[in-house]
Every structure is written in structure tokens, then in C-alpha cells.
Amino acid sequence: MYKKSSKYRMYREIQFEKIAKQSRLSYTYNDEFGLINLLKDFRIFKKGSEQKIENIIGEKTELYESDFRVFDFQYSFQKGKNNLISRQTIFFVQSKNIGLPQFYMEPERYFNKAGKYLGIEDIDFEVFPQFSDQYWLKGESESEIRSTMSDELLHYFTVEKDWSLEGLNYFMIFYKKDKIIPTTDLLEFYQKGKEILKMFSESA
Q1: Residue 24's domain spans which residues?
Q2: Whole-angstrom Cα distance, residue 169 to residue 103?
Q3: 3-class DSSP assignment, residue 134
Q4: CA separation for the pair 65, 85 (Å, rounded)
Q5: What is the pTM of this model?
Q6: 149 & 91 share domain
Q7: What CA–CA distance (Å, rounded) separates 118 from 22?
Q8: Three-state DSSP class for 78?
Q9: 113 in the same domain as 65
Q10: CA-CA distance, 135 to 176, in Å (whole number)?
């Protein structure tokens, strides 16, 4: 929720393109193929206005089983009299190797905990109390979500804190809200997304 100078954005564009070339990934600056329309059913893409995707790197596996993308996403929103911008780097995958129930997972905040006292419950796991304390997990089918969230995934996110994760059929996104991933950590972030996909694939 902050402004970035045009100089910083130009530097980031150059670094994205450089990383893509070095890693043999594709790169486009603008959302030329309507990626934002493909993602409109995810919660974060229903927020705010003036939505924009830029700096897109990615790859497709053999036989196009999986299509990976990492990109910067921003949207504007009003807070009081101020017009603010939320920015985050998002990992997205479309894969034939998963079939996820609709769900969203985000860090559990004070208002989530307060909601529990009003009877607004999320999905908790007795054998992973730390995960349940750290994350708010909701979706359309609790039984399907429980069968999808393997012990490996629950342990992973017990260690990895403050992430948001959303799933819908063959689609999955992974990010930290209001967090732009530094370009020095971009490939590590990309690999984390692939690890999560692998865990979902194995539990399918």
C-alpha cells in the first residue's frame, strides 16, 4: 500500500526480464493474453478497482500439463479520503495434475479470531493446532478441503507463515498480501509455488 517510483518499476522490469532469460522462462511486461480475466473468480481479484498485472514470467511443461506464472498484481482501493494501492507478487498455476475444491487460506487476523466468538468458524485441524492458529481456511466443501490438505501441506504452512493460498479446480494462486517479492528472491518464490503444486498433486 505504497507508491513506487517509475525508476524503481523500470529497474524491476529489467530484473524480471534478466531472470527470465537466465532461467529460460518466458517474459512479458503487460498482460497481453488476458490473464487477469482467467483469475477473476479468486478473492483477491475481486478487490478494488484499476487492477493491473505486469512483469509476467513463466513456463509450460511438456504436453502443456502445467502452465506456471509469476507476476506483480496491483489494485486501487479507498480508505477514508485516501486512494491507496495494494501490490503483491503472485504465483499462479493451471495444471491438469490437480482438481482442487474452491477454498481460500489467509493469515488469521484479529478480526478472524473475534469472528469465532460470534460463531463464524473456519476449518481447523486438531492434529495441527499451530497451523489452525496461524491460518484462516474456508471454502464451499469442508470435507473436500480436509481431504485435499495433506499432512505434508499442513506441516509446510505451519513452518511457512503469513502466506495466502487459493484453489479452484485446476487453478491455484499463492502470495503474501501487500508483499512485493524482491527480485533477488523471485526464483525461490517460484520454486515454493511449484513445491506446493507437487504436494497437491500427490494428495490428489
Answers
A1: 1-99+170-176+190-204
A2: 10
A3: helix
A4: 35
A5: 0.91
A6: no
A7: 52
A8: strand
A9: no
A10: 13
